[in-house]
User: Fold this.
Amino acid sequence: MKFVNSYKDKLRKYNKEHNLKYYIDTMGCQMNENDSLKYAGILESMGFVPGGESDSNVYLFNTCCVRENAENTLFGRLGMLKQRKIKNEEVYIAIVGCMTQQKHILDKIKKSYRFVDIVLGTSCMSIFPEKLYNAIINGQDKIEYIDVSNTLEEDVPIKYQDKYKASVSIIYGCNNFCTYCIVPYVRGRERSRRPESILKDIRELASNGYKEIMLLGQNVNSYGNDFEEEYTFPMLLKEIEKIDGIEIIRFMSPHPKDFKDDLIEVIRNSKKVARQIHLPLQSGNTEILKKMNRKYTKEQYLELAMKLKQIPDVSLSTDIIVGFPNETEEQFQDTLDVVKKVEFDQIYMFIYSKRNGTVAAKMEDKVTYEEKVDRLERLKKLYEEILPKLNEKMVGKEYKLLVEGKSKTNDKLYTGRTSQNKVVVFEADDTYIGKVVNIKIDSQHLWYLKGTIVK
Ligand code: SF4
Assistant:
C-alpha cells in the first residue's frame, strides 16, 4: 500500500494557523519503536510539531500486547486525558498497534473510553492522515476503528531520533505461532519488503550520514520466503554490504530454526555485519520447546550456537522464558545447562506471562509464581557469573565502535557500542561523535567496559 494522501495537505494548511502539537507514547518492542518514528514522520509532514506529555493536542498511543501491564498503563493514561477532553480542550486521541487487534481491548475502548477518536490496527499508517482529518476537521465524534493487517506500507516518512544509527523494517508479521506468543495474531502473516525499497532507504540513510543500521523483523531470516523468485536474507545482507557509508549492520531477530549455513558464511565473510547475533533460546529443554512450538531441540540449538561461536570475536545474545506452564525443575536445569555451555553475552529473561488468545494460555500450569521468580533469580545469578569472564577476554584487545555521544552519567566521558554490542566508555571530545573509531579495552565493569581510542 502506497503512502499517498491528500488529507496530509489539508491538515498541513490547518496547522499553519493552529500549530497543533503531538505526543507519541510507545510501548513494546523495536518494531513498535520503528513504527512510532514513522508516525512522527507522518505527523510532522502534516505540520504537527513535537509537544510534551501534558501540553499536546494529538496523543498517539502505539500499543503492545506482549506484556500484561501495558493494558493498565494505556487505560491509566487515557483516564488522565479524559479530563482535558471534558474541559473541551483541543485534544485528539489515537490508539494504534498490536493491542487494538485484540477483541476484548476494542470492546473495552468502545464501551468505556468513547472519548478516544481513532483506533487503528497494525499496518494502517497510510490511512492515519484521513482518520485524523475526520477527527480534527470534520469533528467526527464516533470512534473510527480500522483493521487492515496483512498489508505492506511503503514510502512512509520517518523521523529518526538518532543522527548516526537507524532501524529499517525488512519483514512484517510472523508465520511461526509459538504457543506463548500473540504476535502472529496481531501482526498478521509474513510480508517481506521488496529489496529495491529496502536498499533505496538504506542508500538514502547513508547519504544523510548514517553509519549503523539495524534490520528489523519478527523473523528476519524468513525474509523473501513470500517472493516468487529466490531472494533470501543472506542475499539482502550482501547487497547492503556494498552500500558506501554504512559501516555496521545489525539485525533482530532471527529464528534458530531458519538459521542456515549460507547466513553464517555471509556473517563470517562480512566486514560490516556486527559480530553479535541474537539467537532466541526461550527454553533449553526439548519437551518444553515442543510445547512452545519452537521447532528445534536442545541439541540442535547447541549445535547451531557452537557453529556461530566459531566466528571470530562473535558474541551471542538470547531471550529466555522461565516458568512456562508446568515446567519442571529438571526442565529448567536444561535451560541453565545451555546457558553454561553457550555463555551468552546478553540474556533478556522473562517470567512466562499468559497472553489470552494463545495456545499456551489454555495449558495447565502448576508452577507457582514463587517458583518462577526463584528460577529467574537463579538464571540471573548464573548469567552474572559468566558475564565478567566474557568481558575479561576483551580486555587488551581492539574493537571497532561508533561513537554515539556523551555518557549520561559523566559528561567528560563518551560512549559507544562495539560490534559485539558491548557498551564502552572512553575519553574523547565532540568531534568524535558519529565517527567509527578503534578502541582498546582497558577494563571490564560487568555492564560496561572502559577503553581508550586508538589513534
Ligand atoms: S517467532 Fe514465535 S516468538 Fe517470535 S514473533 Fe513469531 S510467534 Fe512470536
